[in-house]
Amino acid sequence: MKNRRMSAVSLAVLGMMTALVFVSNYLRIILPIAIGGKTSFTLANIMCCLSGLLLGPAGGLASGLGSALYDLTNPLFAAECWITFLTKGIMGLAAGWVLRSAAHREAPRYPRCLAGAVCGCIAYYVLYFFKCFAYDGLLVEGLPPAVAVGILPLKVPASLFNAAVAILIAPPLCLVIRAALKRAHLKIA
């Protein structure tokens, strides 16, 4: 019975994090770029990292699914929802793997949560910039490779802001939520 209860709690948190990732995607400012697509200031990366930090690698499902569902509701992003599922999913997955590697030994502490958020952001932005080059630049826009690479610096300021906010906010938020769950005698990943 205890294992079923833990599974039910983890499933409930997975669903809640999927919904929070979806809703947090609406907190964005879209910046059109003349060539090579668009970029955004968004707070969704906080929830994507938090999903991995709370749920371990399974948090990748919440971050990928919540972000992909948002893309399906926005005509600017609908065509690339499958890419978003993969890239944002890997963000949560990477954050969760870092946290999970020590989860069986001890309760997560701030340095481990911070490392998870950093790794999640790095994994995401490597994939994001590759997507901007290959999919947006070469495939969709039909740009020559040199031009597709040349537009990537236009996406750096928003990307740095999004990553910094996620790295600053997700780890302490994770610790606060985990402490509240522990006081309520609920255990997740």
TrEMBL record:
It comes from Lawsonibacter hominis. Keywords: Membrane, Transmembrane, Transmembrane helix. The keyword Transmembrane applies. This is ECF transporter S component. The keyword Membrane applies. GO terms for cellular component: membrane. It holds the Pfam family ECF-ribofla_trS. It comes from the Bacteria. The chain crosses the membrane at residues 6-31, 43-70, 76-99, 111-130, 160-181. InterPro entries: ECF_substrate-spec-like.
